[in-house]
Amino acid sequence: MPTNKQDLNQFGSAKPTQSGDPQHCAQCEAMLTDALDGTLSPADQAAFDLHLLSCTPCSSMTIHNRKLATIMTPATGGIVTSCG
Predict the structure, then answer these.
(1) Which of 6, 13, 21, 27 is most buried, judged by most C-beta within 10 A?
(2) H-helix or E-strand containing 68?
């Protein structure tokens, strides 16, 4: 169990570590949207990146979602929020 706030992510849960155990992978998945949006704190981004270095499934998930986000973003650089 984390003993100080530096060991917690923005949701109050333990940050993902280098290991690929399911608990850390779930935390990585919870941080994915913010990581793709570039809104993680520098410390959370570093923890996220560190986990990706040693976890092939999370790394693959991140690559897949980055590609998907690129496809879903129009050439104008904005995200479509309405059809009209």
Answers:
(1) 27
(2) helix 56-72
Read off the pLDDT of residues 39-59 as tens digits, 9 standing for 90 and up. Answer: 999 988 998 998 898 888 899
Residue type, 31: M
Tell me the one-letter amino acid at 64.
H
Half-sphere exposure for 50 (CA within 13 Å, toward CB):
13
pTM across the whole model: 0.61
- Average pLDDT of the residues in 23-30: 83
